Model the fold of this input.
Amino acid sequence: MAGWIYLPRLVDKIRLNLAGKLHEDYLPNYLHRGFDAKWFETAGVDPDEFTALVATSDTDGQVADWVCHNVLASDEARTAFNTGVGNYGSDEADAELRARLAQRKEDAGMGDRNDIQCFVDFIDADEGRL
Done:
């Protein structure tokens, strides 16, 4: 969405939260930690301003148009963000992060899932898409 790998998920989370339907497991990281916070930092957007935008937008297209016209992050910054999020946890050299991913998989009953190689894979599997 508008060139950002994480934006559709973020918009969905905001819409779910506004409707009171965001699962409680996501609340500790909502907007101010994790990938949410990294997107706001990289995009240079205030979380409250963006939440208000999503709340008053009827479609994801309206949100995407706003992002295209108002987010001033460089193409390089957007590419680095997309690569970082898309591969987070897959670097074999980062033993600590790989261990955290392995623990999350184990805790979720997916310790034997070799197809889960990064946190995006884990999220997709945890939410039934992988």
Observations:
- The chain has two domains: 1-87, 90-130.
- Residues 1-87 form one domain.
- Residues 75-87 form the longest helix (13 residues).
- Helices lie at 7-18, 34-43, 47-56, 60-70, 75-87, 95-107, 119-126.
